[in-house]
Amino acid sequence: MSQTADQFKKLVAHCKEYGFIYPSSEIYDGLSAVYDYGPNGVALKMAIKEYWWKAMVQLHENIVGIDAAIFMHPKTWKASGHVDAFNDPLIDNKDSKRRYRADQLIEGYMEKLQAKIDREVQKAAKRFGEAFDREKFLAESPRVAKYVAQIEQVRQRLAQAMTAVDLGALKAMIEEYQIADPETGSRNWTEVRQFNLMFSTQLGAIAGEEGKLYLRPETAQGIFVNFLNVRNTTRQKIPFGIAQIGKAFRNEIVARQFIFRMREFEQMEMQFFVRPGTEMEWYEYWKAQRMKWHLALGTPADKLRFHDHDNLAHYANAAVDIEFAFPFGFRELEGIHSRTDFDLKNHQELSGKKLQYFDPELQQSYIPYVVETSIGCDRMFLAVMSQALVEEQVPGQGNTRELLKLHPALAPVKCAVLPLKRNDEQLVAKARAIFDVLKYSFDCQYDDTGSIGKLYRRQDAIGTPYCITVDYQTLEDDTVTIRERDTLQQERIAVTRVEEIVRQRVDMKSLLQKL
Ligand code: GAP
Q1: Which sequence spans correspond to the domains of the chain?
Q2: Alpha carbon of 87 to ligand 1 centroid (Å)
Q3: Is the CB–ligand 1 distance for residue 266 below 6 Å?
Q4: Cα(367)–Cα(274) distance, rounded to whole angstroms?
Q5: Looking at 49-53, 65-69, 198-202, which range is the least confident one?
Q6: Do the strands 415-419 and 369-376 form a parallel or antiparallel pair, or are they unpaired?
Q7: Which of 229, 301, 417, 472 has its CA 20 to 30 A from that of 210?
Q8: 3-state class of 39 per DSSP?
Q9: Which CATH number does 397-512 carry?
Q10: Which helix (H) or strand (E) holds 404?
Q11: Residue 2, pLDDT score
Q12: For the whole prediction, is pTM greater than 0.70?
């Protein structure tokens, strides 16, 4: 197993062992690509949502929030283009009966070419030793140049085929590049066909097409259909935004990599309504803002990058992803899309309601253009967890510890109160009394179920920034030791100072002030 696959396996196991994420309905062997959040998981997820909501709604006077229903009038999805165009190209392997996304098979082929480049680099580094100049080698090696050209050619063909929805071209590429079933090696493929990703269900007792409802595949449409309501009730002037956090559902053909691609997931989306012609300025503004939001958490800059879309979604005239270096490579974490007036225009047409804005400066009405920021809450969760989980040598000791280096504002438990000995009534009573005061300020945990060393390790593994230890000196002078998770430094402080010290670091305010 490669180091990264091993790392990823450890992360998945850690999430389960420490109550972050469980497979859904596990007693029935789980449900493919559906997961449940455990006690620590729900706390971390809520903190991520709070950080996003405050950054969007609380910090911007011109952004307001809504919470729209998951079920929407079926015409919504006709207007948005999802009924006709929210498809993935599907291909089956006739021998293995396995189902794949044709574009992902081709992307896998490109990754193999990239792996060949990486191997050339490794070989050369070994050959030249200390004198090896990576950049020079990449620029001058004829073999590398050949692979780079091949990747670029495949990338262009794929983008063209996807944009033109040319299923025959995708099949031709799979045949030409001799792409095999990754699981079995078989090249016995069906034709490529379109697969709509929306889940459908029936409304009440109405049978057939008339009662057909969809589970929303994005939260954005709940915002578009409420554009007039929000505008009329808040008197916001353009430019202004509407933010929403909520569940979305997609019948993904291939849903893998844990919570990265799920069939039920949560989105945090914001639609920013602007004057037509100014959308590219706002697009650049939101690109910068969103990157800042990620960096403020302390994520190293080299783990995040922008990636312009090669093929645009049916509604966009510009689109970029913020990609994160997940354990399985750089992948999309968030999308920023310039959606033009596509959605409002189509809703206006199909509903017959005027979805326009009267601009007092221009003295004219128009359908606003929209710049959208859209991030998956679960994907953000995975990014945060994979960045935070480390195994490190305990300074001055021979052993290692598993540590979740979460930003303190996101940590599920902000502070643990631990008596030095669990069977000493006085210590337990004092520790409980301290806990009973602190619990009103932030999420605290009282624990006396093991030796102090064990209790520290347990808190490290769930990312608790501070542990407060109550010992015999506490009974004499009302002081405790406060242990900092990352540095392991312990300081003796008065009980009365605990709240203030912990609050300083765990308060979301410090995070928001960086934006
Ligand atoms: N409203 C625009 C929209 O939905 P998208 O790129 O399809 O755009 C936005 O999705 C974000 O939602 C992605 O960047 C990703 O973080 C998250 N997302 C999309 N599909 C997902 C899935 N199947 N599982 C988990 N997260 C997903």
Answers
A1: 1-86+197-393, 88-195, 397-512
A2: 14
A3: no
A4: 9
A5: 198-202
A6: unpaired
A7: 229
A8: helix
A9: 3.40.50.800
A10: strand 400-404
A11: 64
A12: yes
Residues 325, 303: contact at Cβ < 8 Å?
Answer: yes
- Architecture of 88-195 per CATH? 2-Layer Sandwich (3.30)
Count of residues for the chain? Answer: 515
Distance CA 280, CA 286 (A): 10
Q: How many CB atoms lie within 10 A of CB 88?
A: 19
* pLDDT value for 458: 96
Contact 243, 230 (CB under 8 A): no
Find out whether the beta carbon of 343 lies less than 6 Å from any atom of ligand 1: no
Nearest CA to ligand 1 atom 20: 261
Which residues make Cβ contacts (< 8 Å) with residue 51, sequence separation at least 6?
293, 297, 409, 410, 508, 511, 512
Give the C-alpha separation, 350 to 73, whole Å: 12
Measured in Å, residue 335 CA sits from the centre of ligand 1 at: 8
Question: 1-86+197-393 has which fold?
Answer: BirA Bifunctional Protein; domain 2 (3.30.930)
The average pLDDT across 320-330 equals 95
Q: Which atom of ligand 1 is nearest to the CA of 263?
A: 23
What is the bridge-based pairing of β-strands 466-470 and 415-419? parallel
Could you tell me which of 249, 321, 250 has the C-alpha nearest to residue 287?
321
Q: Residue 493 in contact with residue 479, Cβ under 8 Å?
A: yes
Sign of the CA dihedral with 149 first, then 103, 331, and 304 last:
positive
